Amino acid sequence: MGFNSPSKIQETALPTLIADPPQNMIAQSQSGTGKTAAFLLASLSRVNTNLKYPHVLILSPTYELAMQTGKVAKQMAKFCPNIEFCFAVRGEVLQRGEKITAQFMIGTPGKVYDWAMRYKFFDLRKIKVFVLDEADVMISTQGYQDQSIRIHKQLPKDCQMMLFSATYSEEVMQFAELIVSDPIIIKLKREEESLDNIDQYYIVCRDKEEKFQALCNIYGTVTIGQAIIFCHTRKTASWLVEKMVKDGHSVALLSGELTVEQRIAILNRFREGKEKVLITTNVCARGIDVEQVTVVINFDLPVNQHGDADCETYLHRIGRTGRFGKP
């Protein structure tokens, strides 16, 4: 899989997570440092292939992240024969009365809750390992929080819980400690939240036309593998795509209103290098790993619903580059 030695989060978290009796954990580590591999290895070690029902559950905030996590899990499971996977995500359809026999489930909160509580495809009371990926957004965003809490309430008391994220606000951490009993906590100091191998620069611009000119200047002077450009709204993202295409750049647009099939196709084309630039809203801010990305541009700086600076989203965005020690 290309791992030569464990990252800091892996060597810190894994011995605890795979030990018996199982320990709960709330873990923080910068973007791109191998958190996914840490919780997947721990989760895979708990699978009992004799059981023909889901007993490992990983919740992700988006379809794209759930599918990417599943891809990595399947690669790792090559060394663990007879583990079956299922994906509780948009577009997956089961027949009424069907019972899921796969041991390992990865999904988004709404779909997982529906499959368990409305359709009874599986039983949350039989889950032995529960992972909340991108735990900060799963706890702090109202819709995700409601669904995640409902799922959490159905889990057995002896279920091992793992919460992983690159960022945790104080309020989110307090809430996490309330819902996870007696956790081991791995937390970064505020100044450690950004990776040292990501160089950060800013350019002062008066309007979006000046921003576009600055973008063109960057392209003229910097050697770029692939780039992700983040915009605050779909409208700005569409405007920027139009401008860049006119300027002769090969670009793709990824935003929330696209269908599942369109989003998969766009991400696959970008991963294959068919487009060098991906312009997106916050759909790609978390967890999406494209090895060739060398530049991340915040065309608009992220803000929360109150218009205040959203530092957590900023850290997740810039973490799309500098993955696992790469410059």
UniProtKB/TrEMBL annotation:
Keywords: ATP-binding, Cytoplasm, Helicase, Hydrolase, Nucleotide-binding, Nucleus, RNA-binding. It is found in: Cytoplasm; Nucleus. GO terms for cellular component: cytoplasm; nucleus. GO terms for molecular function: ATP binding; hydrolase activity; RNA binding; RNA helicase activity. It comes from the Eukaryota. Residues 16-186 form the Helicase ATP-binding domain. The keyword Repressor does not apply. Pfam families: DEAD, Helicase_C. It catalyses: ATP + H2O = ADP + phosphate + H(+). Its EC number is 3.6.4.13. SUPFAM superfamilies: P-loop containing nucleoside triphosphate hydrolases. The keyword Iron does not apply. Residues 197-327 form the Helicase C-terminal domain. This is RNA helicase. It comes from Stegodyphus mimosarum.
